[in-house]
Amino acid sequence: MKFTKDHEWVRLDGDVATVGISKHAADALGDVVFVETPEAGKSVSQGDSFAVVESVKAASDVYAPVSGEVVEGNAALGSAPETVNADPEGDGWFAKIKVSDASQLDALMDRAAYDAYLGTL
């Protein structure tokens, strides 16, 4: 699992990346009440907003940690947005993206580096 400074995570399985927000981000947002995930077929570029998460505190964009084509949005979050709080780095994923440039993952942080980054905030 790799992380961005915007608190997204990505897990690569072959050429498909599963993407979500970190536990830190979910905890900071508080109770998630709405999630808008991208439709399959949507092209995304690294750093582009591709999803929205709303909580009782704020609405936030979710940014693509990698470029590629969305192969699946997590439709289950539409009826159960609280899954993002309950399991942000598991069942609370936002999208699966067919990665167009796997080398983009090289610039992301591993868990230890992300934890160290959180310590600087």
What does this structure look like?
This protein has 121 residues and is an alpha+beta fold. 19% of the residues lie in helices and 36% in strands. The protein is built from 4 helices and 9 strands. The strands form 2 sheets. The chain has a 6-stranded antiparallel sheet with strand order 1-2-3-9-8-5. Strands 4-6-7 form a 3-stranded antiparallel sheet. The mean pLDDT is 97.
Biggest sheet overview: 6 strands, antiparallel
Write down the secondary-structure element order. EEEHEEEEEHHEH
DSSP helix fraction: 10-25%
Mean pLDDT over all positions: 97
N- to C-terminal distance: 21 Å
- Helix segment tally: 4
Structure class: alpha+beta
- Please state the overall shape, judged from the principal axes of the Cα atoms: globular
Tell me the radius of gyration.
Answer: 13 Å
- The order of strands across the largest sheet is 1-2-3-9-8-5
Low-confidence stretches: none
Strand content: 35-45%
Number of strands: 9
Q: What features would you highlight for this structure?
A:
121 residues; alpha+beta; three-stranded antiparallel sheet; 4 helices; Single_hybrid_motif; Glycine cleavage system H protein; lipoyl; Biotin_lipoyl
Quick rundown:
The chain is α+β, with helices and mostly antiparallel strands.
Please give the structural blueprint.
Elements: E1 2-3, E2 8-13, E3 16-21, H1 23-29, E4 32-36, E5 43-44, E6 49-55, E7 59-63, E8 68-73, H2 76-79, H3 83-86, E9 95-99, H4 111-118
Antiparallel strand pairs: 1-2, 2-3, 3-9, 4-6, 5-8, 6-7, 8-9
